[in-house]
Structures are given as structure tokens and as C-alpha cells.
Amino acid sequence: MTAERRNARPASLPIRIVRARTNNLKDVTLDIPKHRIVVFTGVSGSGKSSLVFDTIAAESQKQLNETYSSFVRNRLPHYGQPEADGLYHLPASIVVDQKRLGGNARSTVGTATDIYALLRLLFSRIGEPHVGESSVFSFNHPQGMCLDCQGLGNVDSIDVDSLVDWSKSLNEGPLRFPAFGVGSARWKRYALTGFFDNDKKLGKYTAAERHRLLHEDGTPVTHPLPGWYASTKYEGLIPRFKRSYLERELEELSKPERDALSRIVRREPCPACGGGRLNARILACRVRGKNIADCAAMEVGDLRDFVRSLDVPEVATVVSAMADRLHHMVNIGLDYLALDRETASLSGGESQRVKMVRHLGSSLSDIAYIFDEPSIGLHPRDVHQLTDLLTRLRDNGNTVLVVEHDPDVIAIADHVIDIGPNAGADGGRIVFEGSVDALATASTTTARALAKPRALKTRPRHASGYLQIENASMFNVSNVSVRIPLGVITVVVGVAGSGKSTLVHRILPRLHPNVVRIDQSALGGSRRSTPATYIGILDPIRDRFAAASGLPAGLFSTNSLGACPECRGIGLVRTDLAFMDAIEAPCETCDATGFSDQARSFRLDGSSIADVMKMTIPAAKDFFASDEAIRAPLERLERVGLDYMTLGQQLSSLSGGERQRLKLATELARTGRIYLFDEPTSGLHIADIEKLLRLFDELVARGDSVLIVEHNLDVMAHADWIIEMGPGAGHRGGQIVFEGTPSDLTKATSSITGPFLRKHVG
Ligand code: ADP
Ligand code: ADP
Ligand code: ZN
Ligand code: ZN
């Protein structure tokens, strides 16, 4: 390694991977050219992430982290241990993925992109009246923040009518909050003061009594009832709830407390700063009539035009740096966002693009940028802007590695690496590597799927009824009325930020309780959660083992009697090293199965419980063929295309798309629903999309309705009905611009999407 470093120019040598075995990879040996756009394709579960993220990125980050002190290292993100015989000539890598940006209320689009720092600089230089240096324009700075809201822009207040049931007396338990019930210690702090008639309805209290109950603080309790704890101070409900709940971190509260709190707390823009997060002195400082909060509230496209119009020589460099970054945002389809938008409210695709902005201005070269389906959330119209940006990164001397299914992104690859042939144990091999042209004549699943001709559905189904949305408004959606057909597949299309999610995921569920949202969010559960636990077949499986062996069912559980004593059922042992990262290694006692020797020694038809947990879905289905309670849920997993999973795989290893399909699998047992999907094709190979469409057909055939927010043209072509939102994003969108069949869409003049669909099926 050292010798090579000395003799050669490492940057020009390809990344060399020798016998990589991470997850399902089958001793993959591979050279990846540097300074190229390399696209990784293959069906979902084939091993793309295992190679790109869990092997290349993980090793690169690990080596980089090892150059830091252990103090720094403990604060850096931790990556798993890649398994390979060798990994050579790795560049430093930057992973730009879809993980949501921090959930902190002080993280905004402006702070995450560093554009807000430039805006502060601008105001400190040319704002009038002049107030001070740039740091005071920060809502995190004590001299800058609005003190009423601590720089958060909104204030929480107790909604008294939700907390208090005025029709009840203290003896009837009027407080709707956990642990304030009649007889509880907290209830006694009101009922035993002697201040109130405990049988009088709270609604009948005099103004003075009501004020005392709600607002007084520290009033001496002179004639308490028996049982009053003498040193207790009186504290009215509002100060009590502020102190105990509002002023504490949410993490300190129990789940029931948090849920109850969400019902009694009202969040409103802070009256002092109007949501601007800054104090009056800072907000008085203006540039061309606008204060810094006004600028942060503008959509970035408008803000870019505003800063470009500032023709002030002393801030020319700040202005051009800002305009550049804002322009990048517009370029990747984020023109509708404002700098003051909290990052926690962004979707995965939006988060990925916001992260991208930080890197586009960078002049670093010889970096490997690693993207995870960057086309997610982008309208076909905007995909070429994304591909332009990837091209620019390469032309700046970087290596660009992209996991992607979108044919328009695959088309710009200098080099394609196709992984397969199938998913899970049947995948993990390189089935093709070469140019896009060579891929066209290859005989892999990807090549065949790309070459397949597309057509519109010839006979769209007719609606069995309609859901009506009338005069709905929220965010940019204003006064919209639209009919959602039932019993068919409806696809909602439109550019990013046009209002699709607002309509489908926010407005619709409020109006109609019968809708079920199937999203990609986390599944919950513990480290021991597996597909088997999630679909509810673990108990019947244990019962079978118990019945056949005459042993207790708990013996066949890693959560109970059957747990390996060494790793306590996890299958991994963790070794803490004083000055280095803790190491997790497979547990040797139980062969990484998590089960004790006793649990593994019993065999049902030749297989131990540990063997069963290693089975893929089809194998398990065969094994339990005569057992309806186990077979039926497994069949549902097959129907959603998750047949490559094993029963005992950790749920935390699933991708967002896999989580979405797993949730759908459990839903398949019910009927009569309206299913809402948010880009269900994300993470799906073109060949997998066909399976998903058949599943949607199946839902509709049994009477369900399917409503999908999607940019994927294959899904649009398969729809019975299309609703397009637009015409643009943000305040330029929020309207319905088209309703009709896909075939009508291809002819519609009002539609941005129509021409793309026409070309796709043409
Ligand atoms: P892709 O990125 O092509 O969709 P992945 O690399 O995510 O595929 O997955 C390849 C295989 O490895 C799948 O069978 C998947 O279930 C499995 N897998 C992925 N991550 C883990 C993990 N952390 N532990 C065990 N198996 C995993
Ligand atoms: P789409 O789903 O079509 O991409 P969205 O419905 O997510 O569009 O967004 C429509 C508009 O509403 C955009 O201007 C967006 O910035 C705004 N918006 C969406 N979510 C929020 C939120 N949580 N807070 C403030 N504005 C939001
Ligand atoms: Zn405020
Ligand atoms: Zn063990």
C-alpha cells in the first residue's frame, strides 16, 4: 500500500475492490474508473447499496475517521464494517443521501445550505440602520434572537378548553391529562387547597376562582384540607403546565404525556417577532425595504432575483456567492423553498437536494460523491438539471457514483455497473459493466426492462364513486376543489413543490377517515424485530415447534428462554475498546443466530428454529405449506415483491421502499380502503415497478382505491385517472391544471407532464 502510494498517482488509478462480501455480495472483484459518472443499476435487493454504501463509502469514511483523534472520532457518524479482501485507491467520499436533515427546530434550509450566513453578512454590511456584526443577525445569538420565542419563531400555549372539562367539578376529574385523575398527587394540589368547592362545576366558578385555578402562582395556602402536604406551594394550571411540560425537552416526557400534550398545546407564530425569530432591533435593519426575516421567507427563486438586483460594490463578493448558491437551488428544482423552512419538514428527496447545494459550490476535486437515487421527487422536466449538475461535479475532477433507476440518469453514465441477476441470495454479482451503449445489447434484467416498449393502458377503468374535496387551502394550495375517483388507480402528478403532497397527504386525510397512508417511514420495534415479527407469524411458528417438541414456546424465542446467553439473542457481540471504536462481531457461541444450543438442537422436519429464520420467503412458504396462519402472510410478502428477504433479517436493514412494501403487505389482509402512496417506485428497478403495478391492480380489483403521488412515467401510463397540480412550484403552483385519463393527458395543452408521457409511450 505504502509503496504504491509513493510510485503512482493514486488519483488516476481505478478504485479496486477485491472479493467484497458485505451482505449478499458474492466475492465481488471490480475496478471502478475515477473521474467518471458511474451508475449502479439492478433490481431492488440485488446488492447496489451493499457495494456502494456499505462497502465503498463505509471503508472510505472509516479510513478518514481513523486519521482523527478518538475524541473527534466518537463524534463522527459510525459505519458498519465492510467485508472484503482488499479495497484500494479509495478517494475521500461524500455521501449525499436521502436521510432527513436534523430534526432540530433551529435547523432551516438557510442554515443547512450556509446561505443564511451570507445573508447575515450582507445585512451587517449594508443594512440600515447599521446594527452590528453579522453574528447578531442569527436567531441563535442572544443579542439577535427574539426573547419571547427564544429564536424559534413560534410559541406554544396551553389551550385551556382542551385541558379543562368545564362541565365537571374537581371531584369529577376535569383535567384531561395523564396522572391528574381524581385522588392522584397532582390532583390533590388543587382539590386539597381549600380554595375551591370540590363539587362545583368548573364552568360555574367566579372570575376570581377561575383566575386562581388557571393563573395564580405561589398564593399561600392558609386553610388546606387534611392530606395537604404542608410545604407545597400553590401553582395554577397554566404556570404548572408551562413549567412541567412546555419548558422541558420532549424527550424527557413519556409517550402518553407527549400525546396528551399535543392535544392541549397550540403552536402559533410568535406575536413579538411575527415568526421572524429575531428581536425588534434586528428586524428594524433593512436592505431595500426588506428585513432579514422578510428575505428568509421569500422563495429562493425570488430571493436570488432580489440579491442580484443589489448593485453595491462593497458587497459584490457576498452577493455573487449568495446568488450562486441560490441559483444552484433553483437549478435542482428547489426554487419554491424558502430559507426559513425548517429542514425537519422536508421530504427525503428535498433533503438530498438541499445537501447537494453545499457541495456544488465546493472547489474540492478528487472527491467521490455518492448519490442514492437523486432523481427522487423530481419531475421528468427537471431531471436534466440534475444530470447537468452531476456532469459538472465530474468535470470539476471528481468521481460521481450514483445508485439510480431512472433511464434519463442512466443515460448520462460514462460507465454502468449492473448488479444481479436477482435479489438477496440470488443477487450480489456483477452481471454487466460497460458503457450505456453496450448495456443496450446486454441480456440482463436491466437491459431488457430498458428496451421494453411502453404503452398506455388501452381501457382505463371507470370510477365506482367519488371523494369530493371542496375549496381546500393549505400552504400553497389555495381554494382547490377536485374529485378523487374511487375504485380505480389515480396518479397525482406535477413539478416538485406544486402541492401534490399537501393535497394528498395533508388535506385528504383530514376530510376522509377511511384513507390509509403507506409511506416509507421507520417501522418501529427493537433490534430483534424481523419480517417474521412484523407480519405476525413468529408466534404460530413457535407454537408449531413447541407442539412438536413438547417444550415451552418461549424456548424458541431469542427474546425469551431461547436467547443465546453470550449475545442475549442479538447474534452479535460488542467489544468496547478503550481508545477505538467499539467493534461488533458475529457471536460465535450461537453462530450469529441469537438462539441457545438447546433451542437449536430441536428439529422440526429437519430444520431448527434458527434454520427457519434463515429461510427466504418462498422456502418458508414451502416449509409451512399446510399451515394457513403462516403461509397466508408469507404469500402477501411475495405479492409485494419482498420474497428475497429472510424471516429473521433485521428490520433496520430495510430500505425506505422495502419498508413501504412491508407495510402494504400487512394491509393486504383488509379491504375497502383508500390507499395513499408517496412515490412508491423509489428504490424500485424498472422490472420491480411492473410487479408493483400488478399489486395496485389487485387492490383495485377487490374494491380498494389507489391514489399515488408519482413522477414515474410507467406508473402514469398505467393509471386510470390523472390529476395534475401546478402550473409551477410554491406560490406559482397549488392549482389543479388537469384532470382526465392518461390518454387525454398526452394531448392536454395545459399540462407540463403530457409531452413527457407522450414521448415515453410514443
Ligand atoms: P439494493 O441496494 O440493490 O436494493 P441492498 O444492497 O440493499 O440491495 O441489499 C442486498 C441484500 O442484502 C438484500 O437481500 C438485503 O435484504 C440484504 N441486506 C442489506 N442490508 C443488510 C444488513 N444490514 N444485514 C443483512 N442483510 C442485509
Ligand atoms: P409537492 O408534493 O408537489 O412536491 P408540497 O405539497 O410538498 O409539493 O409543497 C407545496 C408547497 O407547500 C411548497 O411551496 C412547499 O414549500 C410548501 N410546504 C410543504 N410543506 C410545508 C411545511 N411543512 N411548512 C411550510 N411549507 C410547506
Ligand atoms: Zn419571537
Ligand atoms: Zn449468541
From TrEMBL:
Annotated GO biological process? DNA repair
Keyword Cytoplasm included in the entry's annotation: yes
Q: Which Pfam families match?
A: ABC_tran
Kindly indicate whether the keyword ATP-binding belongs to this entry.
Answer: yes
Check the record and name the InterPro entries matching this protein.
Answer: AAA+_ATPase (IPR003593), ABC_transporter-like_ATP-bd (IPR003439), ABC_transporter-like_CS (IPR017871), P-loop_NTPase (IPR027417)
Q: Which organism is it from?
A: Labilithrix luteola
Kindly indicate where the leader peptide sits in this chain.
none
Swiss-Prot/TrEMBL keywords: ATP-binding, Cytoplasm, DNA damage, DNA excision, DNA repair, DNA-binding, Excision nuclease, Nucleotide-binding, Repeat
Question: Which cell locations does it reside in?
Answer: Cytoplasm
Recorded hits in CDD domains, A to Z, give: ABC_UvrA_I
Q: Which residues form a coiled coil?
A: none
Annotated Gene Ontology MF terms? ATP binding; ATP hydrolysis activity; DNA binding; nuclease activity
Annotated protein name in UniProt = UvrABC system protein A
- Domain of life (superkingdom): Bacteria
Instruction: Report the GO terms under cellular component.
Output: cytoplasm
Similarity comment text for this entry? Belongs to the ABC transporter superfamily. UvrA family.
Domain ABC transporter as annotated: residue spans: 8-446, 456-752
